[in-house]
Amino acid sequence: xxxxLAIDVGGTKIYNAVVDExxxxxxxxxxxxTPKNYDDIIKTFKSVIEKFEDEVDVxxxxxxxxxxxxxxxxxxxxxxxxxxxPKTDFQSLSKKPVFLENDANCAAWAEFETGASKGYSxxxxxxxxxxxxxxxxxxGKLLKGKNGAAGEMxxxxxxxxxxxxxxxxxxxxEIYTSGTGLKLTGEELSxxxxxxxxxxxxxxxxxxxxxxxxxxxxQNDILAGLIGLANLFDPDLIVLSGSMAQFVDTDYxxxxxxxxIVTTPLKVVKAALKNYxxxxxxxxxxxxxxxxxx
Amino acid sequence: xxxxLAIDVGGTKIYNAVVDExxxxxxxxxxxxTPKNYDDIIKTFKSVIEKFEDEVDVxxxxxxxxxxxxxxxxxxxxxxxxxxxPKTDFQSLSKKPVFLENDANCAAWAEFETGASKGYSxxxxxxxxxxxxxxxxxxGKLLKGKNGAAGEMxxxxxxxxxxxxxxxxxxxxEIYTSGTGLKLTGEELSxxxxxxxxxxxxxxxxxxxxxxxxxxxxQNDILAGLIGLANLFDPDLIVLSGSMAQFVDTDYxxxxxxxxIVTTPLKVVKAALKNYxxxxxxxxxxxxxxxxxx
Lengths: 294, 294
What we know:
Two copies of one chain form a homodimer.
Chain A: E1 3-9, E2 13-20, E3 30-33, H1 38-52, E4 58-63, E5 66-67, E6 74-76, E7 98-102, H2 103-114, E8 123-128, E9 132-138, E10 141-142, H3 173-177, H4 179-190, H5 197-205, H6 209-233, E11 237-241, H7 250-260, E12 267-270, H8 277-290
Parallel strand pairs in A: 1-4, 4-7, 8-11, 11-12
Antiparallel strand pairs in A: 1-2, 2-3, 5-6, 8-9, 9-10
Helix pairs in contact in A: 2-8, 4-6, 5-6, 6-7
């Protein structure tokens, strides 16, 4: 059975584990803080790879940033590793084949092969966290676009330049529906700049009217985006993951989406896999690539 | 060389012609008014098919409505043929194989094989007319979704229920960027319920300030949608066709889209083929299907 060393590179943490070709994690999961300095990030990669490369058939990175269609390079990224990341020759880090894919794409693929969207050829996965990531599976394949950057959830929720997005543009889905988005909606509706997502969720759970209204505005912004995605992709499922997904009412979203779309009925569900879906998806995709499938 | 009888079914006109496997129209184009009565529509199909079926290898329909993934049936439609259309067994109309595809998908495919997006594997085509149609090519294939309904340009431009869309939902891209959308934007900004798209275009061409402002609002709504589509699909090209596309400044749209997207640079261009792209695309797809390619 083929095995991959899976390495999940996030803005704050790097995880690694050995994953077999069926998606099972077969080693202990190691966790490192993401170094601030890019040279130190590469050193972390190297030490992890040296330790495990003899045991595995392929090195599989799940990473922030867009990955090219050959799965060899990062073509763009954000945050502290932005500048150096696209220059890196990942294959030089190991004598085994090295495979890269975007983390949201990896998570979408893991859910497709072993999780919530198993058996469905068309799905949209959203990771609702500090930001919002997207991975789209169309006809049983990852939607990558011309350079591998497809699936960015930066489409506009309004056109009057109301809220600046982290991407530099205005009024993207991400800046309304992420955790950050919930806080900003809270600030707008409460006139309290110090409000936190915790205040909103707690207040809503305790029946506070204002906090409930803030939460519902946020959830209805998610709904508005899902309607558009359903009309564009006609998916079987929309899968929600990430730290903010736990607060969402998927029965409500399923019902309301299906009321308004012009395409065919779908379900909104929560992801089945937890924190390690990035590693699992990267490993499954890397093994698939070894086997010559795209 | 394989040949198709191509039949393009629109809400007001039905066109037909014989098209060869390279996309050349090799007969005179016939034009019929679309009958009001569904039985008469079927009679028109039958008489056209009887006349030409012995000359061709396949019957290729380009039609309004969503077409299933087997290209055999309409799964949903709008307008006067809505109710009966999904019940129709199209194969019963001819002894030759019968193939159907949605008209915007056909137009997108015709541009991909022989027109503006030739040589590019990833493109989004928008038909800006009375309404707005969409056809998406991803990785060299039509994006169809689970039931063939993908590519509907009904994503929201705002979330405050400002303008009702023809689809029954609120504030879709279509109801801001179609010809109807231009008129509605004109009504809002001029307080004149009798304003026409002609008034707006003529006024803008003559330097009228208000008409120019209306036009620019409309064009910037198109821009806002294109930014979202570019971030979702990372396409090589966005192709604009339809009667309203002639008024749009594609250099402006290309420049402004590329300023704001997080994916990689693309071009916004006008379609190369004119009125017959539906027939040409249907014929090319039907021949492809005869040859066993999906």
